[in-house]
TrEMBL record:
SMART domains: AAA. Residues 5-233 form the ABC transporter domain. Keywords: ATP-binding, Hydrolase, Nucleotide-binding, Transport. The keyword Transmembrane helix does not apply. This is ABC-type quaternary amine transporter. It comes from the Bacteria.
C-alpha cells in the first residue's frame, strides 16, 4: 500500500474549461512538492481538488492508499494556507494560531501556540492584534496556524505572492526550514520558479491543466527535457544544431548530447539512457546513438553566456550588444546572436579587425572553427538573429549598445531539449 498522497487520473472541470486533466502524482511522507506553472495552468484547481474544495470530475485522491474524494474538507486532516493568510481579525495572534486546536486542553494549547510562534520567528506575539502585523508577519502567523494541528498534509496556495521579492526570498527559505523541521508533507502552489526551487524537494510543472514534468530542482536544471519546460525555467535562446555549429559551439552540443545520453546530471545509465531527457522511446532514441539531432535544440541556461570586452579574444564568436541593464547585482547585456547565415560570425570578427574564424568558446575546441559549409547551412525558416542575455564580465569595462562583444559559453550550463511541436 502506498503511503502519503497519490493522485490518479485527477480531472477537474468547470463549465467550458477542463482546468486539471488526468494528473497522476505521488507525494511521499515528509516530501515538499511545488506545483509551478503559468497563470491559468490549473495549479490552484488541482490543490483545491486535493483539499476537497473543488469537485473532482474523475480520478482519485488517495491518502495512504484510501480514496478521500468523498471525504469532506474538514475530515481529510489536511491543512490549508492561502495567499492572503485570511487571519481572523477579531482574534489576537495567539487566538488565530490556536484556531485548529479546539480539542486540546488549554495548557497544552498555550504551549503549542508558543512553540509555533517561536518556530515562525514571532516569539511573544500571542497578544498582538492581527491588524498591527506587517504582511510578512501575517503570513508567518497563517503558517503557524496551519501547522499547529499537525496536519498530515499541508496545502499552500501562493502563500508568499502578496509579499515583495526580498521578503518572499527570506520567507521561502524560512518556510523550507520550518517544513523540514516539522517533517511536514506539503503541496505548494506558486508561479515563482525561484520560490519553488527554494522550498521544494521536487517541482511539478503544469501546462494547460496537465502535469508535464516532475523532478528535483537539480534534475530540471540539468535536463529540462522539453523546449516548453526550458523556456519556462528561463533558458534561452534555444538554438538548432546548425546555428550551434555556425557559432562554433559544436562542442557544447556534443557535450550536452553526451549528458542526455548518460542521463540527467550525467549519471551513466540513468533513466535518460533510453532517450533524450529520460523519456524512453523519445525522439532522441531513434537518432544516432547519443547524439540527438533533428528534433533537438540546445538550450542555454541563464548565465551560460559571458560577454568579454569589445576587441578581446578574436577566436570567440561575437555578437552585437542591443541593450545593457542591471539585475540583482549583475550587469547584463542583451546581444543579438548572429543567425544561421553564420558567415555573420566570421565576418563580424573580420570586420572588427580581430581576424580569425569563429572558434568554439571551449578551449579544447579552439581548433574547430565553423567551416564555410557549416556557416552556409541555414535553418529553414529560422530567424536571422536571436536575442540572448550574457553576464557582462568585469573585465569588459564599459559596453554600449552597438558594440561587438566576444561571447564565452559555459558548456556545462547548456542542455539539449526536445523541440516542442
Ligand atoms: N470557479 C471557476 N469557474 C470556472 N473556471 C475556473 C474557475 N476557477 C478556475 N477556472 C479556470 O480554470 C483554469 C485553471 O485555473 P487555476 O486557477 O486552477 O489556474 P492557476 O494555474 O492556479 O492560475 P493562477 O496562477 O492565475 O492562480 C483557468 O482557465 C481558469 O480560468
Amino acid at each position: 500500500m502506498s503511503t502519503g498522497l497519490s493522485l490518479r487520473g485527477l480531472t477537474v472541470v468547470y463549465p467550458g474549461t477542463t482546468a486539471v486533466q488526468d494528473v497522476d502524482l505521488d507525494l511521499a511522507d515528509g516530501e515538499v512538492l511545488a506545483l509551478l506553472g503559468a497563470s491559468g495552468s490549473g495549479k490552484s484547481s488541482l490543490l483545491r481538488a486535493v483539499a476537497g474544495l473543488e469537485d473532482v470530475a474523475s480520478g482519485q485522491v488517495r491518502w495512504d492508499g484510501r480514496d478521500v474524494v468523498t471525504v469532506p474538507v474538514h475530515r481529510r486532516g489536511f491543512g490549508l494556507m492561502f495567499q492572503d493568510g485570511q487571519l481572523f481579525p477579531f482574534r489576537d495572534v495567539g487566538g488565530n494560531v490556536a484556531y485548529g486546536l479546539a480539542g486540546t486542553p488549554r495548557s497544552s494549547r498555550e504551549a503549542v501556540v508558543r512553540r509555533m510562534l517561536h518556530l515562525v520567528g514571532l516569539p511573544g506575539f500571542e497578544r498582538r492584534a492581527v491588524s498591527t502585523l506587517s504582511g510578512g508577519q501575517a503570513q508567518r502567523v497563517a503558517l503557524a496556524r496551519a501547522l499547529a494541528p499537525r496536519p498530515r498534509l499541508l496545502l499552500l496556495d501562493e502563500p508568499l505572492s502578496a509579499l515583495d521579492r526580498a521578503l518572499r526570498e527570506q520567507l521561502a527559505t524560512d518556510v523550507r526550514t520550518i517544513l523540514r523541521e516539522q517533517g511536514t508533507t506539503a503541496l505548494y502552489v506558486t508561479h515563482d520558479q525561484d520560490e519553488a526551487m527554494t522550498v521544494a524537494d521536487r517541482v511539478g510543472i503544469m501546462e494547460g491543466g496537465r502535469l508535464v514534468r516532475v523532478d528535483t530542482p537539480e534534475g530540471l536544471w540539468s535536463d529540462p527535457g522539453s523546449a516548453f519546460v526550458a523556456r519556462f525555467l528561463g533558458f534561452g535562446p534555444l538554438l538548432a544544431r546548425e546555428e550551434v555549429v555556425a557559432l562554433g559551439w559544436g562542442q557544447a552540443w556534443a557535450r550536452a548530447a553526451g549528458r542526455a545520453a548518460a542521463g540527467p546530471g550525467g549519471r551513466p545509465g540513468g533513466p535518460a539512457a533510453a532517450g533524450l531527457g529520460g523519456r524512453p522511446g523519445g525522439p532522441a532514441a531513434a537518432g544516432t546513438g547519443g547524439s540527438p539531432e533533428g528534433s533537438a535544440l540546445l538550450a542555454l541556461a541563464p548565465g551560460a553566456l559571458s560577454a568579454l570586452a569589445p576587441g578581446s579574444r578574436p577566436d570567440l564568436p561575437r555578437a552585437r550588444v542591443t541593450g545593457v541593464r542591471l539585475r540583482r547585482g549583475d550587469r547584463l547585456v542583451e546581444v543579438d546572436l548572429p543567425g544561421p547565415g553564420a558567415t555573420a560570425v566570421s565576418s563580424a570578427a573580420a570586420a572588427t579587425g580581430s581576424g580569425g574564424p569563429a572558434g568554439s568558446a571551449e578551449p579544447e575546441a579552439a581548433t574547430a572553427p565553423a567551416t564555410p559549409t557549416a556557416a552556409a547551412t541555414g535553418v529553414a525558416g529560422a530567424p536571422a538573429s536571436r536575442t540572448a542575455t550574457a553576464v557582462l564580465a568585469a573585465s569588459a569595462g564599459a559596453v554600449e549598445p552597438g558594440d561587438q562583444v566576444a561571447l564565452l559559453l559555459d558548456a556545462d550550463r547548456t542542455a539539449l531539449v526536445r523541440s516542442d511541436p
